[in-house]
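ok so for the tutorial part 2 we go from a plain amino acid sequence to predicted structure tokens. step 1 is just haveing the sequence, like this:
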Amino acid sequence: MRTLEGSQLNNLLSQKKNITILDILPEEEYNSIHISGAINACIYELAFLDKVKELIPDKKAAIVVYGLDAHYLAAPSALNKLKEEGYENVAVLKGGLNGWINDGYAVDQEGEPEQAKSGVFHCDTDKSVVRWIGRNLLNQHSGTIRLKEAWLKLEYDQLVEGEALVDLTTMECDDIEDAGMRKMLIDHLHSSDFFLVSKFPIASFKLNNASRLEQAAPGEPNYEITGSLNLRGHTDELLFNATLGWNGESIGLQAHFDVDRVTWGSQYGSGKLFERLGQNLVNDAVSISFQLIAPIQKGG
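step 2 — the prediction. this is what the tokens look like for a chain of 300 residues:
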């Protein structure tokens, strides 16, 4: 792969050489900050090559492509696509945009740098979702539970506190078509065999500690969360990994994990507690996934 040092590109630009700098990150990233004089065609879009051919029709043109930095594959992928398309004089900027900025070379930047997120952010209960899956050896059922309320507290982009309450009376099953069978299952889940909803309609989780996983890539879990889950009137510790992130409008926290229901008093069909269950055996683990979405208020 042909590469070009930032100092080499800067020298070529200062000599007024005829060279095209191609930013291949998404348009919103380009609009936020890019190398001065660069044009944009996003490598992640299906129309990438069509846009490049429109912007740079000359297949012999000198092109330098850049992504964020050397840890990622966007720039090498762009170079390979351009070479396959017949572009003859393409190089990757070594170190990408971050390297260029760190070396102190010129960039165009819109507005002020993004401010660190701090404050308490209340979740939108209509956009947020909590899902469950229960299983036995040969079958499973799944559904949703509505979030009653939840909030997240951030200090300088770091998750530090949070709490969520779910309304177990809203439990639904989405994989049984027959209304009568569906009601039978939900009634059973509401009963003392499982979650005793008539006496304990609200389950709650309080975050006790959030440790950032520094090596996590975007989209991977970036926090280890420890907290207290209260279910059926019993409180016990729960540990899971979660992913925190945001865009210009909302903060999102998502995770998926298993809960051992027996720990919280749901004993029905547990092989740890009852003998010779046969087809009445029910897995102790209930899978939970959630996606909490909290709007970012102006100034937040």
